[in-house]
Write a structure and sequence with these properties.
It contains 13 helices and 24 strands. It is an alpha/beta fold. The protein has 3 domains: 197 residues, 3-Layer(bba) Sandwich (FAD/NAD(P)-binding domain), CATH 3.50.50.60; 110 residues, FAD/NAD(P)-binding domain; 104 residues, Enolase-like, domain 1 (2-Layer Sandwich). The longest helix is centred in the N-terminal third of the chain and has 26 residues. It binds flavin-adenine dinucleotide and nicotinamide-adenine-dinucleotide (NAD).
């Protein structure tokens, strides 16, 4: 190996990279991480972590709403203070992780990495050679190619706003739109969602999506379906959003949330023989690209699995195990949970209700656990879940609507991956009272 500067070099420092980098370093390999922006990538700095922190006080407001007549309701979120709090908690994380990597003996080179060939990378004029590379460059926000696109903002901008605008408009009916709109409307802002189709939140449980959009509408969000945005114009301090059908909306802030695009260009993939499309980098069942000494991991992959932090981490861990020879088997994904962090949340694991309808091995049962678990479930009577059971009475899927849907889906993820039966559940004792033990009790009954 001595012919190369490094055994393994990671392009990108997000979850798709650093878990493997740490494991390989522990395996005594010489490891480098290249990062052009902020160490630790999207989730830590501009995604999951700031998002869930900013949502925290609104979650309290949501719960408060279930105790009308019992708790005083006059509570408001002070956005500028919340933003200060976000900076205090989130900003140091990148440096903390950088120190952890350096302490472990990983070399960090800041700058834009460009592959020169299968073993050479250039970073801001410096050249490094490596036996293996892992391309973990993630994705960036899509920007609609329309007149006035320069007036739109990204999810990253939204999570840096010093003031919440009085009027805010989201283009796109996907995850980011719903998560942010669910927060914005609770500040009293006038919120519009402009969707180019008649379906929002594709892939989520239709009944739960309808229930959620109904609730958000009641809170004040204005939905505009089948509207193709084609122009944004500046008018003094405001912006006018126009659609092909002639809809015009006056607003103070526009978020383009029309998806995310893999970072595959300008990184020299062609020079190194790595195959890719606009959907991402193509890999084999070992996460190796067309150039076998170059792996790819995380959001940048052209794969049908959900592009999430736990997926990126799982892939990163797999690559480390593969390089170290600990796991020579092809990568096999377990069931991957999805959570939409709105208020309330939507979550799912395994076989969906839609899939179950097409397959007579499966039975779907609806459990209105919010109504049934009144004393442990904080008055959230609308909370419910659909479970999918196979012909051997095992839990194979679940979709949940409720404030605790993220934690509950983790319990059910365990149950689905272990193919749990009522008999298995009856061999265990769970803490009581708690939402999860209540749900497990109901589940046990339905699996009988
Ligand atoms: C607003 C938002 C909210 C999200 N919320 C959730 C959530 O709640 N739960 C969840 O599971 N997932 C969430 N995600 C998705 C999650 O953030 C990603 O799946 C995850 O970050 C992917 O990790 P990654 O390492 O593949 O990419 P990233 O974390 O994006 O890391 C890629 C890194 O590569 C760097 N890079 C790119 N090109 C180069 C180059 N040429 N040279 C050097 N460095 C380069 C980039 O600067 C970046 O730091 C969210 C995403 C967004 C945008
Ligand atoms: N809770 C989570 O796990 C979480 C949260 C945020 C982001 N993410 C990750 O980030 C990704 C990106 O989120 P997102 O909300 O940007 O994407 P998305 O794919 O969820 O939604 C994009 C939306 O934009 C619409 N759209 C696409 N092209 C359009 C066009 N030309 N004009 C108008 N609308 C258009 C789509 O129909 C869709 O409704 C997610 O897929 C996920 O991988 C995950």
């Amino acid at each position: 190996m001595a012919q190369y500067d490094y055994d393994v070099t990671f392009i990108g420092s997000g979850h798709a990279a650093w878990h493997a980098a740490m494991t390989l370093r522990q395996g005594d390999m010489k490891v480098a991480i290249i990062e052009k922006d902020t160490i630790a990538g999207t989730c830590t700095n501009f995604g999951c972590n700031p998002k869930i922190l900013l949502e925290g006080p609104f979650e309290v407001l949501e719960e408060l709403g279930h105790y009308k007549g019992i708790l005083d309701q006059d509570v408001n979120v002070h956005w500028p203070s919340l933003m200060e709090y976000k900076k205090k908690v989130i900003n140091p994380m990148s440096d903390g992780l950088k120190q952890m990597f350096e302490h472990a003996g990983i070399d960090i080179h800041m700058g834009h990495g460009i592959l020169q060939d299968a073993h050479t990378l250039e970073v801001e004029g410096q050249t490094f050679t490596s036996d293996k590379f892992v391309v973990a460059t993630g994705q960036h926000s899509n920007a609609l190619d329309i007149k006035g696109s320069e007036y739109t903002h990204t999810s990253r901008d939204f999570m840096d706003m010093e003031e919440m605008p009085k009027r805010i408009t989201f283009i796109g009916g996907g995850i980011i739109t719903f998560e942010f709109a669910s927060i914005a409307v609770k500040t009293g802002a006038e919120v519009h969602i402009v969707s180019h189709s008649d379906e929002v939140l594709g892939g989520f449980h239709r009944g739960h999506v309808d229930k959620l959009t109904g609730k958000l509408e009641a809170e004040g969000i204005q939905f505009h379906y089948n509207e193709d945005t084609n122009e944004i114009a500046k008018d003094g301090d405001s912006y006018i959003l126009k659609t092909e059908s002639g809809l015009t909306l006056e607003t103070d802030y526009v978020v383009d949330a029309t998806g995310r695009v893999p970072n595959v260009s300008g990184i020299g993939l062609e020079n190194a023989g790595v195959k890719f499309t606009k959907k991402g980098i193509q890999v084999d069942e070992y996460l190796r690209t067309a150039q076998p000494n170059i792996y790819a991991s995380g959001d940048v992959l052209d794969k049908a699995v959900p592009k999430l932090t736990p997926t990126a981490t799982f892939e990163s861990d797999y690559i480390a195990a593969h390089i170290l020879g600990i796991n020579p088997e092809p990568l096999k994904y377990p069931a991957i949970p999805m959570v939409l962090y709105t208020l309330p949340r939507l979550s799912s694991i395994g076989v969906t209700v839609e899939e179950a309808k097409q397959d007579d091995r499966y039975t779907v049962k609806t459990i209105p656990f919010g109504e049934r678990l009144l004393f442990e479930y904080k008055n959230e009577t609308e909370a419910e879940m659909d479970i999918i059971i196979d012909d051997q009475k095992r839990l194979v899927g679940a979709e949940i609507y409720g404030n605790d849907a993220a934690d509950l889906i983790n319990v059910l993820t365990f149950a689905v991956n272990q193919k749990v039966t009522a008999q298995d559940l009856s061999t265990m004792i769970f803490a009581f009272p708690s939402p999860s033990s209540g749900v497990i009790d109901l589940l046990k009954f339905e699996l009988l």
